[in-house]
Structures
1.
Amino acid sequence: MNPRQRRGALLLVITSIGAIVVFFAVLVYLGDVSSKVGPMTAVVQFTRDVDALEPIEEDMVTTVEVPERWVPETALRSTTDVVGLVAATAYTEGSTLQEGMLVPRPGVQPGYREVAIVVDAETGVAGKVASGNHVDIIATVEGDETTPSRSEIWVSNALVLEVGLPTDVEGSDASGNFESTQGVPVTFALTSADALRLAYIESFSVKLRLALRGDGDDQDLAPADKVFLGQGAQG
């Protein structure tokens, strides 16, 4: 072996020793970090932003591993604990779920009835109404020779329990011609009196619309403000 080969072999040995030293240094560092962080545990986090009272579905949450020492005692550990509940308020993507952040879906309280109707997917809901919202149910009724057409709020501040998926609805237009539209089943919690009013107007109205109320808006309108009469009259 000539001097150049000996220098090359020596350099290779030194490089190998250096790599081994670095490897063990990394192991020591990782061991030190692990000892400081501690064991890992699974928690549930949101995979996207969630609105208040939005129902939680399986693809909206995931489990991630985080250091156990940083996890609050109230953190939820399994997605099976959250699917089917609704968000108590709005949350951002990546938020760790804890007890109290989710609540059961709004249900029917004593004295109320669960009533479902189908409303127009475009004019009645338009993708804005969700479970937990409060809405006014507005119906348009055709007039006759003695009575003008009118729009009226038939049910005020109705609690929405559930909004279904759009489906094809067959019916007729104002001229009696056959037409097919997209309808959305919406379920409400109503008093017996409001349930009867809704059942009546659903049968005889030209169109039903839902007017979404803002958060905390429980104002009861005056009777004169609930009706609009056609032909330039209002009362």
2.
Amino acid sequence: MLLAILLCLFDWSAAQLSFSVSEEVDKGTVIGNLAKDLNIVSQQLEERGFRIVSLLSKKYFEVDLRTGALFVNERIDREELCPNTHKCSLNIEGLISSPMNIYRIEVNILDINDNAPKFLEQIHVFNVSESSSAGERYPLPAAHDADTGINSVKTYKLSPNEFFSIDVSTSRDGLSAELVLQKALDREKQPNVKLILTAVDGGKPARSGNMQIIVNVVDRVSVSPTKTNNI
């Protein structure tokens, strides 16, 4: 409430400061020096009543009035603050008196690879007719990664087997994968094929998540090969 009143009473400074910090850094991590960027002698910050104000639920940032250093004051979880967005920034204000002024400060929160790809289900089961021909394709479930950019899902891998390969493609809708039948199935010889699908992100080091694929081989007249059943 106090901040809202102040914003109505006083003019914004024309200058806006911008800083960047990675999520999950330790408390006390310095991300910039406000005294230097605002051309204020650090000793004057306390004399002029400088303080950080914001409408955020937590006080993520604070300033050392002796040095002017802007530092992290609370744990920052980018996925919690900005779920499913490529850009994440927190806006705070620096309030100073004598004379009164408010400085806009933007802190960009950089993503780190702290989440592994996950599938919505642990096991995916579907039926394929033994009459299916080599080259037929079957869409695979997509994995979700809370991280963005380079740290999101970048590829899929399939466990070695003699019947299926995997084809990974990228479109405007994102990354997708399909099973491609390489060899005719024979229900009498092998009634099902068990595979492991792995989603891998682009982080360094990379993180991954797995899902089991069970392909039930059905009689030629039993079930359409496009019918799926998830458990």
